[in-house]
Specification:
Blueprint lengths: L4 E4 L2 H6 L6 E6 L19 H18 E11 L4 H12 L4 E8 L17 E8 L10 E2 L3 H7 L2 E2 L5 E5 L2 E4 L6 E2 L3 E2 L23 H11 L5 E4 L6 H8 L3 E6 L2 H11 L3
The chain binds S-adenosylmethionine (SAM).
Length: 266
């Protein structure tokens, strides 16, 4: 297996040939058991059991290929999140389930908003590590202007904003911002931003900002990042830009073609 390459094959074939404990970070965005035929790929199954068997055999191999300090993110939604949680608990061990990340995909308009009932507005990302020693770089979002105005009301002679604390002055430029929690409201999906330059019209394509957050948090420069359902190559493109090593796998020739263009490789 060569690094920084995309593979056109069934991911199980490739996974079975991967060395044990080599990958630092795995992100997957598999079919969600949605019952939709997206044309580029099918998410139609004969039964939930068939889907879970498909996932179990692959998640087992991903677990094997992950380093002891490695992290695993499984992107899914309401269609099978509860079953996938139990499946991943069985593979990783319940105590290594770190967080259920709720990604608010943005407010939905059009026919989806006409549904009788609550409008569906989020995906779920199940986050696991392989052990208690794992890479994690805390992520922050900048403070909002109103917050800064309200909280950092004083200014030094040199223009630095600060607030008064019992211990003295607390400078704004010493604060990293708000620590990112497990509800992500600040990243829009292409469901709401179809005109984005980044959008390659690949069905269920994910935004780079989402992968940027995951890759920055759970890997370091030079680490090895893998996406075994890579689609248009979002994970790979971000991993490359952030100086990680990467591999991607997809069994759809159109996806691999898009990846190659996006990554500028042959
Ligand atoms: C939800 S899409 C991934 C979209 C991707 N995250 C992006 O940003 O473009 C799922 C992908 O998994 C691929 N896929 C499904 N079954 C697969 C298999 N057995 N082996 C490899 N790829 C598979 C599909 O072709 C599809 O491109």
């Amino acid at each position: 297996m060569k690094l920084n390459t995309v593979y056109l094959t069934d991911n199980l074939e490739l996974l079975r040939n991967l060395k044990t404990k080599t990958i630092d970070l795995i992100y997957i965005d598999p079919p969600f058991f949605s019952g939709v035929d997206y044309k580029e790929f099918s998410d139609l199954w004969n039964s939930l059991d068939e889907y879970l068997d498909f996932m179990r055999i692959r998640v087992n191999e991903m677990y094997r290929s992950l380093k002891e300090i490695g992290s695993f993110y499984c992107h899914c939604d309401h269609n099978a999140v509860f079953e996938l949680k139990i499946l991943c608990d069985q593979v990783f061990g319940r105590k290594y389930f770190r967080r259920e990340i709720i990604w608010n995909v943005g407010s939905v308009s059009g026919f989806k908003s006409q549904v009788k009932g609550w409008v569906r507005q989020h995906d779920t990302i199940l986050y696991y590590t392989k052990s208690n020693i794992f890479t994690f770089n805390k992520q922050f979002t900048p403070y909002k202007d109103e917050y800064i105005k309200k909280m950092f009301r004083y200014k030094d002679e040199d223009g630095r904003l600060y607030r008064k604390r019992r211990g003295g002055k607390q400078y704004l430029d010493h604060k990293p911002g708000n620590a990112v929690g497990d509800v992500w409201n600040d990243i829009y999906s292409f469901q709401t931003t179809t005109r984005s330059k980044e959008y390659l019209s690949y069905p269920t394509q994910k935004p780079e900002k989402l992968l940027e957050r995951i890759i920055l948090a759970s890997s370091n420069e030079g680490d090895f990042v893998a996406d075994f359902f890579c689609g248009s190559g979002t994970t790979l493109s971000v991993a490359k830009r952030l100086n990680r090593n990467w591999i991607g796998v997809d069994n759809n020739p159109k996806a691999i073609e898009l990846c190659k263009k996006r990554l500028n490789i042959s």
